[in-house]
Sequence to fold (151 residues):
Amino acid sequence: MNPIEELKTQLAKYPAIKYKSDSTSITVPPQNPNSFEVRFAYGENDCLVFYEGWHEHFTASEEAMKCFLFGLSPNCRLRVLRRGVYDYQWTLQILENGNWIAYDTTRLLFFPFWRRRKVIILQNNYINNPHSLRSAAESGRSSAQEMKGKT
Fold:
């Protein structure tokens, strides 16, 4: 079974989750203004998982699927920095032992720095997922580093 079909099977367990898919990607849109989009895309050599502007590369589709599902759980949130109406930084935070731990950050180089800064917290609450993102993301990070070394 390809990763998109496998994710559809997983999402079918949660009828409240609406998603869009095609042959190479699946996207769960935000459920409300305080939640975020989660997207999975795969190609020949790797998979990508997006939480709004944050993203991670994976060579193992199983780890990418865990990361995708984790983004739908209440144990994951994004701390977004905005200048004016422009989002420019997304920090993935993981709930560990009752505390939010900053895990990884994706940011844009160019943004309207002269605008007023605002911090926004976005969180999904679709599913309770037992998978640990730490192992999935670390696997993805090492796989991405291996790919960079080959090019």
